[in-house]
Amino acid sequence: MSSVDADEIEQALDDLFDQALVYHGYTDYMRDYEVVVQGSADPAAGQNYRRYLFRNCPKVTVTSTVGPEVWARSLEEKLIHQGVPGSNDVYAWGVRRQALYPGAGRLETSRETKRWSSRLGVPFYEVTLEGNSHEIHLLFSGLSVGDLEPGYMPFVVPAEPKTE
Length: 164
Prior knowledge:
With 164 residues, the protein is an alpha+beta fold. It is built from three helices and ten strands; from the N terminus they run E-H-E-E-E-E-H-E-E-H-E-E-E.
């Protein structure tokens, strides 16, 4: 996994266009935010998985882009297991992926990024990733991108509780 600078961050974000978002969340150590994508929103196109690790991420806002009227018709439990909906009137959560379309916005500078940059002494950025079921707004200081090996799991329940 390699770390990238601001110009490379822009290029990496451009590469997210129309990828299939299959997982997102904070890492198990709670500092960085990971986004796992499949090489294409089309499942038939292959299984190449990449991890976008947004480093030093103090703020993430995730909002559903599924409208309230579709939510209202998509509450049945069977939809979390159903791969393809029987109707366009519902959202089939069970597809387990969402198209990142239109994808990532441009890196933004704001009062908040300037404040974090000033306090920590490293550049901070903001970006919004938009898919067909979530909009993810991230505040972060760096990005690492790398391929994932089969079997990767973002969290595993330990056999014994950790003691401090």
